[in-house]
Amino acid sequence: MAGRLRQPTGRYGGRSAEERQAERRRRFLEAALQLFGESPGFRSTTVAALSEAAGLSTRQFYEEFHTLEDVLAALHLQVNDWAEQAAHAALVEARDLPLPERAAAIFRAYAANVTSDPRRIRITFVEIIGVSPRLEEQRLERRSRWVDFICAEAAEAAARGEAAPRDYRIAATAFIGSVNGLLHDWRAGWVDASLDEIVDELVRQLLAILRPAGWPPDA
């Protein structure tokens, strides 16, 4: 299909065209979270099945999206946005706490958000993998935002004298891979631990990175 169908204009049922469009988009993304995040998964879902699950028509689908890949891309961004918002909100609340408590608050908020719905984990760590170069670029771009977040907080901790001053980009990249792998494996039932134990372990790993043996020098 060359492009989306023309959007309806004007008010209908007391709602503007923009409001109706936002509602349709929300319903398609909720249906996608159900079908992509549970069964049958992204690769086995059709436009007709997604439209039926959303209670909308295929014509309305093509008014919002070009392809199902567009829906997966939008859903992946939404799930990541939810997790980022949770982490940043926790950071605001914990900004004045010591580093260990600050890190624990951030990771507890992030982990609680991501694991609150197993479908979010599947979208983030499973369904997005190997779909297309475009989605792989998007996945890596969102991961790089988490790396930037860790690096920024590490720099802040170093400026406060709470962590060793150095370039943390490689370490942060490795750490984010550990976070993703551990949360995926825990949610899949391969790690026998509580979520609090998972968070505690991640915090210990992060502190070991920020405060290596022999730091501070006068310890």
Give the SSE string.
HHHHHHHHH
> What profile does the largest beta sheet have?
none
Q: What global shape is seen?
A: elongated
Helix proportion:
55-70%
Total helical elements: 9
| Protein structure class | mainly alpha
Low-confidence segments, given as residue ranges, are none
Rg is 21 Å
Give the termini distance in whole angstroms. Answer: 66 Å
What do the pLDDT scores average to? 88
β-strand number: 0
Q: β content, as a range? A: under 5%
Overview of the molecule:
By secondary structure, the chain is mostly helical. The protein is 69% helix and 0% strand. α1 packs across α4 and α4 crosses α6. The longest helix is centred in the middle third of the chain and has 27 residues, at 68-94. The radius of gyration is 21 Å and the shape is elongated. The relative contact order is 0.10.
Write a brief structural summary.
The chain is mainly α. It has 9 helices and no strands.
Secondary structure layout plus pairing:
Blueprint: H1 17-37, H2 47-54, H3 58-64, H4 68-94, H5 99-115, H6 118-127, H7 133-159, H8 169-187, H9 195-210
